[in-house]
Amino acid sequence: MRWLGLVVLLLVALAGWLVFAGAETALAETSQIAEGEALYAETCAACHGANLEGQPNWRRPGPDGRLPAPPHDASGHTWHHPDDVLFRITKLGTAAVVGNGYESNMPGFGDQLTNAQIEAIFTYIKSTWPEELRAHQAEISAPPG
Questions:
Q1: CA dist 121 to 26, 63, 98, 142, Å?
Q2: Alpha-carbon distance 136 to 126, whole Å?
Q3: Full DSSP string of 3-24
Q4: How many Cα atoms occupy the beta-carbon half-sphere of 43 within 13 Å?
Q5: Which residue has the higher pLDDT, 64 or 6?
Q6: Is the pTM higher than 0.85?
């Protein structure tokens, strides 16, 4: 009977720890989303829209021959790209990532944003997507194997 009490006590302690760890993770993600939202407003919204809506006619080159800024909401194509590509584009700029003389109005932000800040912006953007888009994007971002 004493063992049963010990097992119950251990299970209650484990459950409490799991709830605490989950709450701590959720709190950290909520904080990262808030940071990302503020950074997005400061750094990205001027081109990509305050509501992630992108510029009009973003699929057609403008008069300068360059594509307008795409939306980052569910109507865009951001969720079609794995994390590493999105990160490099944000850090280095689209032209540097695409290469071959490609021209883009998307500059690199590596000299303005830390890696953690770029990740926070992505966490915010992803938090606005429906679950099926987040799942797809997570799947294509997962390491092979």
A1: 17, 29, 21, 19
A2: 11
A3: HHHHHHHHHHHHHHHHHHHHHH
A4: 22
A5: 64
A6: no
